[in-house]
Amino acid sequence: MTGAVVITRPLAQALPLAARVSALGRQVELLPLLEIEALPEPAALLAALSRLCAPQPGYKMVAFVSPNAIDAAFAHIQQWPAGVRLAVLGEGSRAALAAHGVTPETVDIVSPADSAHSDSEHLLQTLDLAALNGQPVLIVRGESGRELMADGLRAAGAVVDVVPAYRRSVPHLTPQLAATLRRLLLQQNDWIITSSEALRGLCALLAQLDADYPDAAQQNPVVLMQQQHLIIPHARIAETANNLGFSRLTLTGSGDERLLAALQSRL
């Protein structure tokens, strides 16, 4: 058996998974590689949600790119407007919707048919794009993100609004974080990586670690990290990992159940 299970999600999303990993008897390390912050002035989000929740809803469909987008928006939504379809990328977003009382029993929720490919490309393939021709669609995402979904919907004739709901940032390399990274690289662990942005941020932190906190007794931190085992839910993240020099990968498909099954197979 390998060492700890390193969960790199933002802290709020990491805690429920950490409890389930601990129940398997595995040691858990929380290492949030992205910090999620509310926007100081979410004027565009509030205006779009006001239009959405008007007596005559202003959108035919709303696409949320992540659980964070859902949580940020539902802080301002009292009740989901009747007749408005939802589109999400994976099981984590479906769980986030359920936590806000939105389930397939009451709302039409669309997500990629293949859970191993929970991304914008496969969501576009699942949607009835012809039915969205001329229809208003809202995309709620982070302050930065891929344009593929918006471009695909516009190409199909949809009238698309894209609004930011939160801000992502890689944590600063503090002496405490530097020590944690050094310690984790001393043994082989299972790293749960659920974001390409987080993995790129980790590699940048490790390069900075070698420059700002050198340790002649330890091998290059980036090289040590490339020797670790990554558990990854999406093919696009796996592609990012391969491009960054990682080869020990387990691709699970979307959802915590599949992540946990991959960990159990390593017991």
From TrEMBL:
UniProt keyword Lyase, yes or no: yes
Pfam families found in the cross-reference section: HEM4
InterPro entries: 4pyrrol_syn_uPrphyn_synt_sf, 4pyrrol_synth_uPrphyn_synth, UROS/Hem4
E.C. code: 4.2.1.75
One record GO biological process: uroporphyrinogen III biosynthetic process
One Gene Ontology term of the molecular function aspect: uroporphyrinogen-III synthase activity
Entry protein name: Uroporphyrinogen-III synthase
Originating organism: Rugamonas aquatica
